[in-house]
Write a structure and sequence with these properties.
There is one protein chain. α3 packs across α4. By secondary structure, the protein is α/β, with parallel strands linked by helices. It has a five-stranded parallel sheet with strand order 2-3-1-4-5, sandwiched between helices. The chain has one domain: Rossmann fold (3-Layer(aba) Sandwich), CATH 3.40.50. It is built from eight helices and five strands; from the N terminus they run βαβαααβαβααβα. The structure holds shikimate-3-phosphate.
């Protein structure tokens, strides 16, 4: 069984995903890490050198590969749902959980982050609000169920996912 986590950057996909995989005793894979291994560098530098479209192409390829006969827990990048092919691959080939967080919540977590290229803008909170507005319907459409991340601890979130599987 493959479980995929989608949601905003800083919404806890990697943290929850790692613990969920441990509980299920299955491998944990983070698409961003696979991409960084493949390009031999950071996503931030790749964005700067090759642009977002090249990154999205690579991301789509990795998602396609990882969702084929996969077993485990897959944490996706926050923009994975932007492409229809990714939404279909994730929805049709895995159980998708949307870890739903508000723009304000992820801003609190990410305000000192320098690694996420999309947030290297003068007003990151505004950017996060725009991303949230644009993506929330896409995350919902891709997911089989939604879990609000606002209050519960990480172990509680893991428990909530496990109950839904
Ligand atoms: C992105 C989110 C990042 C990473 C890339 C683009 C996005 O992943 O894939 O920087 O478009 O929201 P996280 O959601 O793990 O931060």
């Amino acid at each position: 069984m493959l479980v995929s986590l989608v949601g905003m950057p800083g919404g806890g996909k990697s943290t929850v995903g790692r613990q969920l995989a441990r509980q299920l005793a299955v491998p944990f894979v983070d698409t961003d890490h696979v991409i960084e291994e493949r390009i031999g560098g950071s996503i931030r530098d790749y964005f700067a050198q090759h642009g977002e479209v090249a990154f999205r192409d690579l991301e789509a390829q990795v998602i396609d590969e990882l969702t084929h006969d996969g077993t485990g827990v897959l944490a996706t990048g926050g923009g994975a749902v932007l492409r229809e092919a990714n939404r279909h691959a994730l929805h049709d080939r895995s159980t998708v959980v949307y870890l739903r967080s508000s723009a304000e919540e992820v801003y609190r977590r990410l305000r000192h982050d320098t690694q996420r290229p999309l947030l290297q803008v003068p007003d990151p909170l505004r950017k996060l609000r725009d991303l949230h507005r644009e993506r929330d319907p896409l995350y919902r459409r891709t997911a089989h169920f939604v879990i609000e991340t606002g209050r519960p601890s990480v172990p509680a979130l893991v428990g909530m996912v496990l109950m839904q599987l």
